[in-house]
Amino acid sequence: MDNMKNLIIDSINNFVFESKHNRILTTDTPYFEKPLVKFAVARDSLFEEYKQIIGPFHQTPHEAFEMEFGEGSFHTGTVISIVLPVSEIIRKSNRSQKDFSSIEWALLRTFGDEFFIHLLTEHIITLLKQQGFRALAPSQSKNFKTTRTDAGPTSNWSERHIAYVAGQGSFSLNDGFITERGMAVRMTSIVTDAILDADKRTVKHHTENCLFCSKGSCGACIKRCPAGAISKDGHDKNKCFAFVYSEEARQRAVALGGEYKFSAGCGLCQTKVPCEFNNPRAKNK
Ligand code: B12
Q: Tell me, what's the pLDDT at 25?
């Protein structure tokens, strides 16, 4: 199935390079650069373990597929994890920010994270259908939910946990996921009944790529957070949520042409930090 994998990877790359929707209209700045695409076996036991680690509501690929296509429709298959690195121009624009996201980062939130990623997953699902397979992007499906728990908002399909299974990297002190292209990335995933070879996990511990968690050094993201939501003890999701989705941030998104419900993002903890655009632990491996 190597040909099939190559077809999927090429198709994702081409869409990111060529789509006019991967551009800020007024400046032609791309939202995303060359993606990282990795594959996980849908029956990987970690997906079941997430019912303990995250909560029983977190779907396995099997459950997500059957919610979409009906009971008994899934036997085996693959989860495709797609990491989209935020473009250098947008990352740089956010580096100089101290109190809230740059204009470019705010536009990325509505038009990159939401509209473009939706178009990209639709494109790949259509490709898989043309090849005789069924597929869905659980984060875009009607069954996707984010609920409030005491620890903060939590969804029933966590892209970072999916990326972890596929070997894309690890979590960090601030919860952000550090890939080989750093933390200033967005991610999405597709579950399919196509059987494709899986990638190997690159880390032994779920916070291995973070300098603070693995070596006790750094902690740069603590100082970058304008909401005081990050400390040596980790990330306070409720404080982060209150800041990222404040009325002020939502109105700022609208004033810039974005959507109220998506707000203006923040991402200060993902920029001007050693893990912004690469894995700071890569050289030590
Ligand atoms: C709800 C949500 C939020 C909430 C809560 C965030 C959170 N940490 O859960 C709020 C509103 C606060 C938020 C804020 C932001 N978000 Co948000 N958000 C989501 C969403 C929709 C779901 C996340 C979720 O429910 N995760 C599940 C919970 C359980 O994850 P967790 O608490 O981080 O998990 C911890 C434990 O599980 C633990 N763990 C414990 N034991 C073990 C053992 C193993 C083996 C493993 C693997 C893990 C593990 O590891 C984690 C770290 O401590 C995702 C999209 C998606 N569908 O995934 C985007 C997403 C996480 N957000 C994203 C972004 C970019 C942001 C912001 C920067 C805002 C912005 N767009 O500018 C901020 C930054 C927050 C931060 N530092 O993490 C990106 C993250 C990219 C990255 N590199 O990490 C995502 C993936 C969106 C995307 N499509 O790319 N977000």
A: 83
pLDDT digits (tens, 9 = 90+) for 208-261: 999 999 999 999 999 999 999 999 999 999 999 999 999 999 999 999 999 999
Testing ligand 1's pocket by substitution, the residue of 79, 110, 149, 159 carrying the most ligand atoms inside 8 A of its CB is 159
Q: Which residue's alpha carbon is nearest to atom 87 within ligand 1?
A: 186
Distance between Cα 72 and ligand 1 center (Å): 31
Residues in the chain, pLDDT under 70: 1, 283-285
**Cβ density class 229-263: b for 16+ within 10 Å, e for less:** bbeeeebbbeebeebbbeeebbebbeeeebeeebb
Residue 243: its pLDDT value, please?
A: 98
* Residue 150 pLDDT: 86
Q: Does the C-beta of 158 come closer than 6 Å to ligand 1?
A: yes
Protein residue whose Cα sits closest to atom 10 of ligand 1 = 241
